[in-house]
Amino acid sequence: MNLRDLRYLVAVAEHRHFGRAAEACYVSQPTLSTQIKKLEGFLGVQLIERTHRQIMLTPAGREVVARARNILTEVDDMVELCRAAHNPLGGELRLGLIPTFGSYFLPHLVPVWRESLPALRPLLYEDQTARLLERLRQGDLDAAMMAAPVEGQDLMHELLFDEPFVLALPADHPLTEKTAVDLNDLKDCQVLLLDEGHCLRDQALDICKMVGAAREEAFRATSLETLRQMVAAGAGMTLLPVLAAIANTGMPNSDAIVLRPFRDPPPTRQMTLYWRKGSARQEAIRKLGEITRQLSVVDRLADPARLLLEAQQQSVTL
């Protein structure tokens, strides 16, 4: 038994297809199948049930795959540790980001990252929290930027910043007459939400429950951009993280949406950097957290009303 065969087994478990697993491992399908059979022979137990229609793991196979993942993660971390010893702030850093954050924050982060950490090459992945956590724990990611809290005592974390929410309204909504809104203004209002699986949905639900707002179940969106279009079409109001809100002010139909900040204290989410305990990339990850907290846009998050005004003025100028 060797590490290569364990990687083949994990690939089959992930892809549930010998052809796709072989492609992911850069070997031929017969080679992969042969090595899996040899592994089963060495262990003396069947790991995979093979049928014409599907590939399934046996109970023993599931246990072996779980342990194999842990072994491969430890080995990869050991290799990365040795590489990082030569240049802790160099090489690749695999960073995950949640969809309601990544595309709106990266334009602020990447230029500073390239200037401050020129030898540290970013590999960026966008996915929902549950999948990012899975990939982080399996060793596919070095770190992830997600909204707190995240379950599990096996991860280290650092708070990056609190990101305020703003209220997005159709242009003809009565609340647009206010320059700033209170949470109590949402009472009995219909609030549009993202679909299941997005942590932002859970945060918005918590706010709705707190103030007695109703969630609009007739419409659900799979992305913030779709949610924004639903507001523009007059389907209802929604809560937007301020970084997403200011990124949309220059859109063609932006005049169909009115953005209003909340009066202090506004509802917020805690954007946090997570990584595995004992990660070989810890020095680079902590440095990334440091430069993130020093970004000019992070300093300005404390005043969302000013951020909205600046974005609006810039869109008018453009």
Compact description:
This protein is 47% helix and 23% strand.
Outline the structure in words.
It is a single chain. The protein is an alpha/beta fold and 318 residues long. The protein has two domains: 81 residues, Arc Repressor Mutant, subunit A; 229 residues, D-Maltodextrin-Binding Protein, domain 2 (3-Layer(aba) Sandwich). It is 47% helix and 23% strand. It is built from twelve helices and eleven strands. The strands form three sheets. Strands 3, 4, 5, 6, 9, 10 and 11 form a seven-stranded mixed sheet that branches. Strands 1-2 form a two-stranded antiparallel ribbon. The chain is elongated, with a radius of gyration of 23 Å. It starts with a helix and ends with a helix. 31% of the residues are buried. The model has no long low-confidence stretch (mean pLDDT 87).
Keywords:
alpha/beta; 318 residues; Arc Repressor Mutant, subunit A; 11 strands; 12 helices; 47% helix; two-stranded antiparallel ribbon; D-Maltodextrin-Binding Protein, domain 2
